[in-house]
Amino acid sequence: MFVYDVCDWRDENIPYCHAADLITCNSEVMAATIHASTGLDAHVIQDPYEGKEKPAKVGESLLWFGHQVNLGDLKPYEDLPIKILTGSDWSMERQEEELDKCGMVVIPTGNRKTKSANRVLESIRAGRMPVTGFMPSYSEFSEFIYIGDIRTGIDRVIANPDKALKQIKEAQDYIRDKYSPATIARKWKRVING
After folding, report:
1. Could you tell me the pTM of the whole model?
2. Orientation of helix 118-125 relative to helix 92-101, angle to 10°
3. Among 168, 126, 125, which Cα is nearest to 146's?
4. DSSP at 126
């Protein structure tokens, strides 16, 4: 069985989708994009969290982590003192270290709308408030995190640290079982066996 898992949409995915016995992806918007581009249906299986759950903490120091292809999203925020973790500097260990040091995570989203919520999940697990641009897969967490203008979000978190700490703890409770590796593995098993 050829399972094709789409995590970033490019037109180069089209022939692989047509060749696959089963297509999976990480968000409803990605599934809609796949269908619009290929006429094929994809099963949505969200990314699990990977990091350890840590106590909530809020502060003014800012972290961005991700693939260097997304660095352009940070251009409007070049004046902010954001620690950037990407490329050869990145590893799971370094990510965990930097999450321990930071006060919040900034996640500008640019014009892409099909990404998973993996960076939001990892930030929450690490006990840090994600301050994000709009992404459909982030909407599920809107009562826990700040989604909108990044600068406004940073200011709000700094001005309301007790509220932010409460939201982080509630978000950790919300994702603990729903996005655990075991829960996501069961989804994979159902889709593959189904």
Report:
1. 0.92
2. 60
3. 168
4. T
